[in-house]
Amino acid sequence: MAERSPWAEDRARAIVDDHRAMPGALLPLLHALQEEFGCIDEPAVPLLADALNLSRAEVHGVVTFYQDFRRTRPGRHVVKVCRAEACQAVGAESLLDHVKRTLAVSEGETTPDGAFTLEAVYCLGNCALGPAVMIDDTLHGRVGPARFDALAKTHRAEDPA
Q1: Which residue of 22, 97, 149, 161 has the smallest Cβ count within 10 Å?
Q2: Contact at 8 Å (CB) between 28 and 45?
Q3: pTM of the predicted structure, to 2 decimals
């Protein structure tokens, strides 16, 4: 996963300036800010509201409506476990339980060492190869407990010491 910058208003304003003229700019701006900073920091809400002539409530409503937007920074690796019906049919719930036990976190939490954030999602678009797991931007199919453990071990080993 790409290293995320800490919140910087000048950088956020530059991102806003790059996107504000787009039709329906709010969603692309939110994605761009989250890509840069890892989450939608609280100071981004009034900045976006002012730049797009929206109320803070409107911006806040969009941020909180879509599950993809985070209000806190994630771990170095984001683990998404699919809970859609096709994956459930082939063991996604037991895999999710295993991942929770292995990482010692619940959905939406980050491990104490900051290595992993766990998210349960509904459909990764890999229905034929469930249970599906996405770690960072890489999709994995037919993931069972042993395969998840190997993937987690590989990602931990890649982290800087």
Answers
A1: 161
A2: no
A3: 0.83
